[in-house]
Amino acid sequence: MAGNALHFMTNANVCLDGNSLLGRAKEIKLPEINVVQQEHQALGMIGKIQLSAGFDKLEGEIHWTSLYEEVALRTINPFKAYPLQCRGSLQRYNPAQGRQD
After folding, report:
1. What are the phi and psi torsion angles at 72 (to 5°)?
2. Which residue, 20, 35, 63, 90, could crosslink 27 as a Cys pair with Cβ 3.0–4.6 Å?
């Protein structure tokens, strides 16, 4: 099942804004995507239905091997989103069967 698979990226170069090398990551854990459902009953409906109301929060983890301080200082504002680009070896694990690919 795809929902039970864990994805890990190892030995990745992490770039900020697509061109500045932010550092090298030992391991990157990608966020799990969950859809939030909302119950809805419109006027005249006998029953209720579940509708998609967006996505749950996305959280990932980066374990750094090295980090360039001069580039990291540009990400100091906690109220701004920064695009990261990661290039490395992606591995997929199934908890029941082990490494898949």
Report:
1. -65, -30
2. 63
